[in-house]
Specification:
Elements: E1 2-8, E2 11-18, E3 21-24, H1 32-38, H2 40-49, E4 60-62, E5 71-75, H3 79-84, E6 94-98, E7 103-104, E8 110-112, E9 119-120, E10 123-129, E11 145-152, E12 155-156, H4 157-160, E13 176-184, E14 195-200, E15 203-209, H5 217-227, E16 235-237, E17 259-264, E18 268-276
Parallel strand pairs: 5-16, 7-13, 8-18
Antiparallel strand pairs: 1-2, 1-4, 1-13, 2-3, 5-6, 9-12, 10-11, 10-16, 11-13, 14-15, 14-17, 17-18
């Protein structure tokens, strides 16, 4: 099942994406997180009861997060990516956070910052929590997953390296993307058997396998829930495979006019045009 957030006629909503259109679910549950917590059986029943279908062309896709969503990101989590960036293999997950307003939805523009020319692409699988957890045992950690989605954890590389903490390079407004929808966990039995690709202007840049992750999905959930409570709707970005712009010679940076696509098997394609910060409306 595919769950997506959108705006239609200036009104935000969310629903289940079907072949016939989007079945709105806002009146049933206020957020996707609440629906994931209710479970797949409740979602299936609600879908069967909802006759309305909204044509996909009538909506603007938005990021399936809310201002209260925790977005926790695990860096340098692919063996080949560690090698291309000449980093040491970490003993524990390398964690940073992102703000909800640093993301846009499917087909919405991501923004090159005016203060940097080193805007890099990073395709990632994201885990969406479906059940509240704290101190989740490793062997039970995947029981708390509600679904998976595509995520562009795009980095402003020079700001990322201003200090030991990478936060300034990871939280530029509208620099990342997420979507186009969340695929419920029942449709992805093994998150470690997926292909993660990125394409820039149609040219393949990354092509990695989640089996290359140093820390498994269960390990990340267990580790993160040790220090913070994970709630339905929270997002965990699982790291990017090799092939990023910073690892190329010469480096490849995103520019206004580019189109970034993130393609993950079993989920779909997240596509975003790239604009420059100076192209944003003055009031934005």
């Amino acid at each position: 099942m595919k769950l997506a957030s959108y705006i239609r006629n200036d009104v935000p909503g969310w629903g289940v994406v079907t072949a016939a259109g989007i079945a709105p679910m806002l009146e049933k549950w206020a957020t996707i997180g609440e629906a994931l917590a209710a479970g797949i059986d409740a979602l299936s029943a609600a879908l069967a009861e909802q006759a309305e279908r909204i044509p996909a062309e009538e909506v603007v896709w938005t990021a399936p997060v809310t201002p209260s969503t925790k977005i926790l990101c695990v860096g340098i989590n692919y063996g080949l990516h560690v090698a291309e960036m000449k980093r040491e293999v970490p003993a524990n997950p390398s964690v940073f956070v992102r703000f909800a307003d640093s993301f846009v939805g499917h087909n919405q523009p991501i923004v090159c910052p005016a203060a940097s020319e080193k805007f890099d692409f990073e395709a990632e699988l994201a885990i969406v929590i479906g059940r509240r957890c704290r101190h989740a045992p490793l062997e039970q950690a995947l029981d708390h997953v509600g679904g998976y989605t595509c995520l562009g954890d795009n980095s402003v590389r020079d700001f990322q390296k201003h200090a030991a903490q990478v936060t300034p390079g990871k939280n530029w407004d509208k620099s990342g993307s997420i979507g186009p929808w969340i695929v419920t966990a029942d449709e992805i039995p093994d998150p470690h058997q997926l292909t993660v690709k990125s394409r820039l202007n149609g040219v393949e840049m990354q092509n990695g396998q989640t089996s290359d992750m140093l820390f498994s999905a269960a390990r990340m959930i267990s580790y993160l829930s040790t220090f913070t409570t994970l709630r339905p709707g929270d997002v965990i970005a699982t790291g990017t495979p090799d092939g990023v712009g910073a690892g190329r010679k010469p480096p490849v940076w995103m520019r206004a006019g580019d189109v970034l696509e993130i393609d993950i098997s079993g989920i779909g394609v997240l596509s975003n045009p790239v604009i420059h910060e100076t192209q944003l409306p003055v009031a934005a």
